[in-house]
Amino acid sequence: MKRLASLLVFASPVAAQSVNPCDWQASAQALVEPWENNTRVFANGDVRLAAIDTVEPAAGADYILVLSPPRSELGERQCRVIGYTDQVGFAAVYFDMLTADYDPATGLLFDVPVQIITPDGSFTNGALMSITLNQSTGAMTTSLALGNE
After folding, report:
1. Neighbour-count burial of 78, counting CB atoms closer than 10 A to its CB (0-12 exposed, 13-18 middle, 19+ buried)
2. What is the three-class DSSP state of 30?
3. CA nearest 60: which of 91, 16, 86?
4. Does residue 6 have a pLDDT over 80?
5. Would you say 84 and 115 are in contact if contact means Cβ atoms under 8 Å apart?
6. Interatomic CA distance for residues 31 and 95, integer angstroms
């Protein structure tokens, strides 16, 4: 499958995003509706990604929720929330443009366009967020490539 990066032109990478255990951002109340358009499953249903909108802060309220192996002793999947920083999400997550691929050497690979905002709120920029998920270990890495805007 072609990676989304081949369709868009990106300038340079920026600092890694925040991947944290689920907290207040992961509330079911924050799931973006309609749910059927803003959640997707992979790996025979073991991995789920969903768009989250926490409403505040208004310019950074969008996150990605990831439920994935490994499972706990009770069978629960690990739950992670990906944002721009620990306290701020993205200005926008274009979940409908999410692409996925699998590489046996690294795991599941996801690309999703996002919009980031500067800390002072004066400027937004398009970017491509890439997520790599190792289902065996649960390790997740992210990278962000800024668009040429």
Report:
1. middle
2. helix
3. 91
4. no
5. no
6. 12
